[in-house]
Write a structure and sequence with these properties.
Blueprint: H1 26-40, E1 45-51, H2 57-70, E2 74-79, H3 90-97, H4 106-113, H5 119-134, E3 139-144, H6 151-163, E4 169-176, H7 182-193, E5 197-200, H8 206-217, E6 220-221, H9 223-229, H10 236-244, E7 250-253, E8 256-259, H11 270-277, H12 281-293, H13 299-306, H14 314-322, E9 326-329, E10 332-335, H15 338-346, H16 350-361, H17 371-375, H18 387-390, H19 398-411, H20 416-428, H21 437-450, H22 454-467, H23 472-486, H24 491-502, H25 509-526, H26 529-546, H27 549-565, H28 569-586, H29 596-606, H30 610-627, H31 630-646, H32 650-663, H33 671-687, H34 691-704, H35 710-726, H36 730-736, H37 738-741, H38 760-769, H39 773-789, H40 794-808, H41 811-821, H42 827-842, H43 846-863, H44 866-878, H45 899-909, H46 914-921, H47 925-939, H48 944-955
Parallel strand pairs: 1-4, 1-5, 2-3, 3-4, 6-8
Antiparallel strand pairs: 7-8, 9-10
Helix pairs in contact: 1-2, 3-4, 4-5, 5-6, 6-7, 8-10, 12-14, 12-15, 19-20, 20-21, 21-22, 21-23, 22-23, 23-24, 23-25, 24-25, 25-26, 25-27, 26-27, 27-28, 28-29, 29-30, 29-31, 30-31, 31-32, 31-33, 32-33, 32-47, 33-34, 33-35, 34-35, 35-36, 38-39, 38-40, 39-40, 40-41, 41-42, 42-43, 43-44, 45-47, ...
Length: 958
């Protein structure tokens, strides 16, 4: 009897037509059944199922759902897709809408998910619906492939699981093991701390392998067939697909499955083909080349074979590792499983395989694995975690730990992710009583922070301090690391850690110099300018004595900030450029703070050099993303959102702010986020008349008002003043600014409560409406002083003229401001001056006012500032002129979308993934996701198929 008649099809982790019984998972199923029994008694909770690709996570979830239904439990099942992450809350809502009894009101929930600024109400209503449903009986909510979930799904899952923990709701989630996005890792850490049960799926034992082989082939396997089956090494998906490929080579004789003509040649496996198809072209070529070469291979060899530099392969290598096709094996790349390598190789034409192997053989020795390695049965098999680095060493082996620390230091500048893993492994090999352990901790903290694991980094440092017994130098180094970690999140905490470390007795001069430099940075970021200047002076002497160029770079940034506070922007720019050059020469990993170029970009933006600032931000995002510096990429995104706001690109600014918000760590709101993305989201909401979002960020501003850092309090006050003005309460707005405008002169913001010079006219207008003429005059004096001190900056002269014209109700300076703004890349500031000049003219010379209003209207419309557009239209109507509505979209075929959204939509319709579109447009994947999410909402489509059809229809002119 031949098994050729067995038909196959591809379903998750099983070939076609073969629905084998679940084997080898009795313990896992028993645990789930016990939790379902507890659920029936009203006990909810969370179960996390984790394991590598193909290990059977989805099958476990399906069996659990079936068991729950047999008990009469309502089940909601959802799953994420890597190409659908831009559909907000898609995986969870799809699950809630499916089944015979969908959750009531789910359609409204989807509407809330796709409406900007409705996140709070979405969470509230979704929680209410689930709570109400759980009162009528227990619920099982299944969520598969958590690693592909969009950020809103992750946030909602985490929030609901915590908020509904007392209800009869069991959350069953599955996630791929190994490397996952930082947002997913944060979610996993949170549910672990909340008491989630964990099921780690490992390889099947030999008995389960034998039984599955018999299930698939319909007969007991003979030793030769079983030998082939064992090559799957207990991975169910690979096992079943491998057995499916044996159809032509197996016959059944007397109830036994036998190989008719020896082991079959390797063939393509469906799951491997799918994963290859999901890769970008560059990553696919890299994986195929590695398969043709054979065993573990160096990146240098792959670069040589592909005709590219190793640095150019950074993204492709990371993508291949994230897809779980390749893994790190020492200093080489290996296939996760030898069957995967064989399946990839089987898809290549034989002449190409032979040519690549021949080319590899001609390269210098040491570039690739030896012939024995390539031909061995486990050539592509991944070593156990840490085995590549510590294969011969046991825990506590000091020599191996030293080697790992050296490797981490060498990798830190270009590959912080691998550097962090080596540093963690070194820490694991260092005994608790080893004298070098505190130093290893201090080295590991910055690497974890840089790669988006700030919570883990802080826990590592605070635990070491709490344990006690540290010498002054060890404690100082750990506090220095914690101060660096805290700088973006909590300005006051950075000051506290640096100050405590610098005060320790007998510490080395270089360590004390760096702590003082970090203290000066923290004080400067906090807005305590006079204290920062005093500490910086002492730190300079200490750093000079130690010859520490890294501390010098950091302190030069502080000097620039001090000059900025004193309104000497020429000196501020000179020092900022010097700091950036020093940091660049030293390498980013040595920086005490963040890339000093970030401060230079912020400085350029504040003074009207938007193009220069934007170019620096885009370079920063690109470079840090390529290097895997998650924390720095997030900070650059926040910075770019500020730049895009001032440049009048409101949609792009909001997209960057949302992307940065989605990638932030779990160390609280974050002070840097307060003064960038939250401020941006508030301003964009006000310009676009998004009242709900504005109120959401006003709540953030109220929290900011009580922060320990003066600068954060200042931003919070300004945001609340903006909100009060939005609500038509100028008196309240001025009251919100009382603390800022009456704070000590030494630490008062340079612009008397403003966060940007362009807001001086706004403050004057606000104060005049509130009858606070003295404060209006104060703002004008400061704006004019800034312009006089910096005569080369036209933007500042324009702002001063605009403010003066408002205070004196004088047309001449308003017209001068309009003229000066023409040479400045600040369209919203220019539109405001045009509107004010037109408003003044309209009193006596209506016809002359119209051109000013028209130009202002065009600038506001191009920026997408809907509230400002409506206001200028009212002014035009009062002047007897009506203008047809226009849209910010730049294409007649796409009136709903902005130019940025159109670019992303067209790339998505061409089949590019979010990652590929991001690389093509030099954006982050989160920004691409944000643009697509808004485009889906505006176009009323829910899938890429619909989007592609719509793009084809519109762009063809049909």
């Amino acid at each position: 009897m031949s098994v050729n008649r067995v038909t196959t099809r591809t379903v998750p982790e099983e070939p076609e037509g073969v629905r084998t019984p679940l084997r080898g998972r009795d313990a896992e199923l028993a645990f789930i059944v016990a939790r379902l029994d507890a659920l029936g008694r009203g006990e909810g909770g969370i179960i996390r199922v984790e394991g590598p690709v193909g290990i059977g996570r989805s099958r476990i979830l399906a069996e659990a759902a079936a068991a729950a239904r047999r008990r009469g439990t309502r089940v909601f099942e959802g799953a994420a897709d890597p190409d659908e992450q831009f559909v907000p809350l898609g995986p969870l809502l799809d699950g809630l809408l499916s089944g015979e009894e969908p959750l009531s009101g789910a359609v409204r929930l989807r509407d809330l998910a796709t409406t900007p600024g409705q996140r709070f109400w979405l969470l509230q209503e979704l929680g209410d619906r689930l709570r109400e449903t759980a009162r009528n009986g227990p619920l099982l909510v299944v969520l598969d492939d958590l690693q592909w979930c969009d950020d809103l799904t992750l946030l909602t899952f985490n929030t609901l699981a915590a908020g509904l923990s007392s209800h009869a709701i069991l959350w069953l989630v599955a996630v791929r093991g190994g490397s996952v996005p930082s947002g997913v890792r944060t979610t996993l850490d949170r549910i672990r701390r909340a008491g989630a049960h964990e099921l780690a799926l490992g390889a099947l034992d030999d008995q389960a392998t034998t039984r599955i082989t018999e299930d698939v082939l319909g007969a007991a396997p003979d030793p030769d067939v079983l030998c082939v089956a064992r090559r799957a090494e207990g991975v169910p998906q690979l096992l079943v697909e491998l057995l499916g490929s044996l159809r032509e080579a197996v016959t059944i004789e007397n109830g036994t499955a036998r190989l008719s003509a020896g082991p079959p040649s390797p063939r393509e496996l469906p799951s491997v083909v799918r994963r290859l198809d999901q890769l970008s072209g560059e990553a696919g070529e890299l994986v195929q080349t590695a398969a043709a070469v054979g065993g573990p291979v160096t990146v240098a060899l792959l670069a040589e074979l592909l005709g590219r530099s190793p640095a150019a392969l950074i993204t492709a290598v990371r993508e291949s590792l994230d897809a779980d096709l390749l893994t790190e094996s020492g200093d080489r790349l290996a296939f996760r499983h030898d069957l995967i390598r064989e399946a990839v190789e089987a898809g290549l034409p034989l002449p190409l395989r032979q040519a690549l192997r021949g080319q590899a053989a001609e390269l210098p020795p040491g570039s690739a694995a030896s012939p024995a390695e390539r031909l061995g049965p486990s050539a592509g098999r991944a070593a156990p975690a840490g085995a590549a680095e510590a294969g011969k060493a046991g825990p506590g082996d000091a020599a191996e730990a030293d080697r790992l620390r050296t490797a981490a230091a060498e990798l830190a500048a270009t590959a912080p992710g691998p550097a962090a893993e080596r540093s963690l492994k070194a820490l694991e090999l260092t005994t608790a009583d080893a004298p070098e352990r505190p130093r290893v901790i201090a080295e590991t903290i910055p690497l974890l922070w840089q790669t988006g694991r700030a919570a883990q980094a802080r826990e590592l440092g605070t635990s070491a301090l709490a344990t006690g017994g540290l010498g002054p130098e060890d404690e100082a180094r750990i506090r220095l690391a914690l101060a660096r970690l805290a700088a973006p999140f909590d300005f006051s905490e950075a000051v506290r850690q640096a100050r405590a470390g610098a005060a320790l007795p007998g510490i080395p001069v270089d360590v004390r110099g760096r702590l003082l430099a970090m203290l000066a940075v923290g004080l400067s970021m906090s807005g305590e300018h006079s204290a920062a200047e005093q500490v910086a002076a002492e730190a300079w002497e200490t750093a000079a004595a130690a010859g520490d160029r890294s501390a010098e770079a950091t302190l030069t940034t502080v000097r620039s900030a001090v000059s900025f506070h004193r309104m000497d922007l020429t000196e501020a720019f000179r020092q900022a450029e010097r700091a950036a050059a020093l940091a660049d020469a030293l390498g980013v990993s040595t920086s005490l703070w963040v890339p000093e170029a970030l401060w230079h970009a912020l400085l350029s933006n504040t003074t009207g050099r938007s193009a220069e600032a934007l170019a620096a931000a885009e370079d920063g995002i690109r470079i840090t993303r390529e290097q895997g510096r998650t924390a720095a990429t997030c900070m650059w995104l926040m910075t770019r959102s500020r730049i895009l706001l001032e440049a009048g690109r409101l949609t792009d600014a909001r997209a960057d702010a949302e992307a940065a918000s989605a990638t932030t760590d779990d160390l609280g709101p974050g002070n840097f986020a307060d003064v960038t993305l939250r401020y941006v989201m508030m301003r964009v909401a006000l310009h676009t008349n998004d009242q709900q979002t504005a109120r959401t960020y006003a709540a953030s501003a109220r929290r900011m008002r009580s922060d320990g850092a003066p600068v954060v309090r200042h931003f919070g006050s300004w945001m609340l003043a903006l909100m009060a003005d939005f609500e038509g309460r100028p008196d309240r707005a001025m009251a919100e600014l009382d603390e800022v405008m009456t704070s000590p002169a030494a630490d008062r913001p340079a612009y008397s409560g403003l966060v940007d010079p362009a807001d001086a006219p706004f403050l004057v207008r606000l104060a005049l409406r509130a009858g606070a003429h003295e404060r209006a005059a104060q703002a004008v004096v400061l704006a004019e002083r800034l312009a006089v001190l910096n005569p080369d900056l036209t933007f500042l002269a324009a702002t001063a003229a605009h403010a003066r014209g408002l205070l004196d109700n004088d047309l001449a300076p308003l017209v001068r401001a309009v003229r000066l703004y023409e040479d400045c890349p600040r369209p919203l500031a220019r539109a405001s001056a045009l509107e004010d000049a037109g408003r003044k003219l309209a009193v006596t010379r209506t016809s002359e006012a119209v051109p000013y209003f028209d130009t202002a209207l065009a600038l506001y419309a191009r920026a997408g500032a809907e509230r400002d557009v409506a206001r200028v239209r009212r002014r035009l109507r009062a002047a007897g002129v009506r203008r047809r509505p226009s849209t910010p979209g730049l294409s007649g075929a796409w009136p709903e979308l902005t130019a940025a959204e159109i670019r992303v939509v067209r790339l998505a319709a061409r089949g590019l993934t979010n990652q590929q579109a991001a690389e093509h447009l030099s954006l982050s994947p989160h920004t691409v996701s944000s643009h697509l999410r808004r485009a889906y909402t505006k176009l009323d489509v829910t899938s890429r198929v619909e989007l592609t059809r719509l793009v084809k229809h519109r762009d063809s002119g049909e």
